C-alpha cells in the first residue's frame, strides 16, 4: 500500500514510520487516515514486532494540527476530524506492538498528543514541546488533557495546558514526558536500537505487560492486580515462556517465535 504523507521501512522486525509533510509535518485528516491504515497493516504483519514513529527532517516531529484545514471547518467538521484523530491515537496506544516516538524536533499540540499515545519517547536535545491550543481559543482535542495528567499529574498538566508555554527537551525529561534525550543526529537511530532490543523479546509478554499497565492505570489497585494476574497467566501459557525458562536453565540465548 502506498501513502501520500507517510514513509515506512521495515528491517530487523522494526517498522520505521515517518510522517512526511515537510517542513513541520502538520496533521490533517488525510494523515490521520493514513496513520490508521498503516497501523492496521503493521498490526497484522507478523514480521514486525516493534514500531518507531517519527517526522521527516530535523525541524519537527509534528508541529501540531493543520491550522489551515481546521480554520475552514465548522463544529460538525472539526468534531469529525477530532473523532478520526482520537481513534488513531487510541489505536496507537493499544497496539499489540511497542511503539516508540522518535521526536526529532517540535512536538506541539496534536504532535505532542501523538507522542503521548506512544509507549516510549526519545527526543532530540533540540526538541521543543507545548500545548498552545488555549492561545488559539481551543483546547487539546486528541487526548492531551487526559494522557498528560497521567504522566505529570493534574496540577502540572493544568499549568502546561493553561499557559501553553514552550518547554525544552530537558524539562520534558524532568517531567517524565520523554524517556531519553540524545543529539538530533542520534534520535532516530537510538529509537531503532531500542526497538530492535524489544523485537528480540517475547511479543506476547510485551503485549500483556502493555495491557496490564495501560488498563491498570485507569482502575483501583485490587482490580489492577486481578488484571495483572490474568495477563500473567496468558503470558505463562505461551511457548515463548517455555523457551525463555529453558534457555535460562541452559544458559543460552532464547529464540522467541511469538506464540
Automatic annotation (TrEMBL):
Q: Which GO terms describe its molecular function?
A: hydro-lyase activity; isomerase activity
- Entries under SUPFAM superfamilies matching the protein: ClpP/crotonase
Q: Which UniProt keywords apply?
A: Isomerase, Lyase
The record's annotation in InterPro entries points to: ClpP/crotonase-like_dom_sf, Enoyl-CoA_hyd/isom_CS, Enoyl-CoA_hydra/iso, Enoyl-CoA_hydra_C
- Membrane-spanning residues: none
In its keyword annotation, does this UniProt entry include Secreted? no
Is-annotated flag, keyword Methyltransferase? Answer: no
Q: What's the protein name?
A: Enoyl-CoA hydratase/isomerase family protein
Domain of life assignment: Bacteria
- From its record, what is one biological process in GO terms? fatty acid beta-oxidation
Family membership, please give it: Belongs to the enoyl-CoA hydratase/isomerase family.
Amino acid at each position: 500500500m502506498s501513502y501520500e504523507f507517510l514513509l515506512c521501512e521495515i528491517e530487523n522486525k522494526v517498522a520505521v514510520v515517518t510522517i512526511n509533510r515537510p517542513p513541520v509535518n502538520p496533521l490533517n485528516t488525510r494523515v490521520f487516515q493514513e496513520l490508521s491504515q498503516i497501523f492496521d497493516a503493521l498490526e497484522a504483519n507478523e514480521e514486525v514486532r516493534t514500531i518507531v514513529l517519527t517526522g521527516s527532517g530535523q525541524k519537527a516531529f509534528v508541529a501540531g494540527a493543520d491550522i489551515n484545514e481546521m480554520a475552514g471547518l465548522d463544529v460538525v467538521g472539526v468534531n469529525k476530524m477530532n473523532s478520526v484523530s482520537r481513534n488513531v491515537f487510541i489505536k496507537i496506544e493499544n497496539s499489540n506492538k511497542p511503539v516508540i516516538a522518535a521526536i526529532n524536533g517540535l512536538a506541539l499540540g496534536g504532535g505532542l498528543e501523538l507522542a503521548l499515545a506512544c509507549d516510549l519517547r526519545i527526543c532530540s536535545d533540540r526538541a521543543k514541546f507545548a500545548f498552545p491550543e488555549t492561545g488559539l481559543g481551543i483546547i487539546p482535542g486528541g487526548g492531551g488533557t487526559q494522557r498528560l495528567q497521567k504522566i505529570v499529574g493534574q496540577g502540572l498538566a493544568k499549568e502546561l495546558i493553561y499557559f501553553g508555554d514552550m518547554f525544552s527537551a530537558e524539562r520534558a525529561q524532568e517531567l517524565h514526558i520523554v524517556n531519553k534525550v540524545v543529539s538530533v543526529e542520534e534520535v532516530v537511530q537510538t529509537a531503532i536500537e531500542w526497538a530492535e532490543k524489544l523485537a528480540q523479546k517475547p511479543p506476547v509478554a510485551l503485549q500483556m505487560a502493555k495491557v496490564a499497565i495501560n488498563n491498570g492505570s485507569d482502575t483501583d489497585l485490587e482490580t489492577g492486580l486481578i488484571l495483572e494476574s490474568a495477563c500473567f497467566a496468558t503470558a505463562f501459557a505461551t511457548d515463548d515462556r517455555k523457551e525463555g525458562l529453558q534457555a535460562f536453565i541452559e544458559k543460552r540465548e532464547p529464540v522467541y517465535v511469538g506464540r
